[in-house]
Amino acid sequence: MDLLEYQVKEWFGKIGIPVLPSQRIDHPTDLKRLKIRFPIVLKSQVHGAERAKAGGVRFAETTIDAIAAAQSIFNLPIWGELPEVLLAESQYDAKQEFYLAVVLDTAVCRPVLLGSKEANIDWESAGEKMVHVVVEQEFSPFYARRLALKMGLQGTLMQSVSSVVEKMYELFVQKDLDLVEINPLAINAADQVMALNGKVRVNERAIKRHPDLAQIAANIISRHTSTEINGILGDWDGVEMHGKIGILGNGAGSVMATLDLVSNAGGKPGVCLNLRHAFLTDTAPTTFRDRLDIGLKILNADKSIQVILINFLGSIPQSEEVTEVIAKFVQQDKSELKSQVVRSNGSKSRREPNLLPLVVRLAGSEFNAAREYFAELKTHTDALIVVENLDEAVDKAVRLAKLTASKK
To answer: What's the start-to-end Cα distance of the chain, in Å?
Structure first.
């Protein structure tokens, strides 16, 4: 999970890395109450790279110019993403610009300090332009000074840059990060340093250990579709695909096996979620019932999903409550569709109710009671299909997905 620049700057300022006076802009009219002096630079807050080339960075000398620039940036998509926030920042006169980063190198399983006297480069492809220092033992200022020396710095500038590197490493450890980057670190005529732009990449597995990160992730979830959520939240035993059949399972093996069977049967798997593990954003313990409830909502919110296939094999905690969650989900959807028909007041232009089918495969004697309960439930709704054989469940899900597609 990558933070936006204004969030990164807030972290930098709190930990002692020099940043310019800045202000978050949620609407162009916020610039009428700007607390920093002109001239300023307005920056689009998106995750896409090369925003300056795309027109997402504008300079302004007056309030009128700033409002006009902000209106333009707010309506400018960069790599398909429209900014919800802009960053207004004081301008800075730099005589030189450096690159600094602290990154987790998975090859050596150690943090690595990176530095270059050339800014605006990619650390993964910089080659000889980049110097590095591996933090082989407990961190000390020695590592930061060693990096500055390898960059060819001396005197006051060496001390200033190494001090910034120390703060970057402190943030890296404090927040369980994969990457802390300053690009560029500007140097003025007095050899003072200033972080003009920064990037922070959070280790997804660490999100639930930090309430502030969990809140940021929750805010991202509230603003994105479910397929985008998977891309943002990454590796929590979920697979993001773009097919029509959403899959829920209670183990990585069962999820992947179901995915393969759907593909082999001519179906197109969509988002696949393993409910055995907690969500990355969970700051408190969750039950299997909680994760099932959330998983169903995620798939139901995804407009590309036409069928949900559940494959539960083996022991599941709270099996009775799991049955209740599935029943409530199906019945709630049906009641919502009925209310939509009522609101249409019999108009000829109304859209026919389209209930999302749910195919449930329950394997094991512990689900006997659940299967009997669902058999009774089927008399009230045609949206639920319950079987014990996985091949049969996959076949029904694929057929339903194709049937739904042909109706559209």
So the answer is: 36
Reduced to 3 states (helix: H, G, I; strand: E, B; else coil), residue 363 is strand
H or E segment at 371? helix 368-377
Residue 405: phi and psi, rounded to 5, are -65, -40
Query: What is the pTM assigned to this prediction?
Result: 0.59
Q: State the pLDDT confidence band at 75, using cuts at 50, 70 and 90.
A: very high
pLDDT tens, position by position, 208-217: 778 888 777 7
- Residue that the structure tokens 């393969």 belong to: 260
| Cα atoms in the Cβ-side hemisphere of radius 13 Å centred on 35 | 7
Pair 242, 183 in one domain? no
Q: 180 near 203, Cβ under 8 Å?
A: no
Between CA 27 and CA 33 the distance in angstroms is 11
Residue 9 resides in a domain: no
Q: Over the Cα atoms of the chain, what is R_g? A: 26
Cβ of 250: how many Cβ atoms within 10 Å?
22
What is the span of the domain harbouring residue 52? 21-90
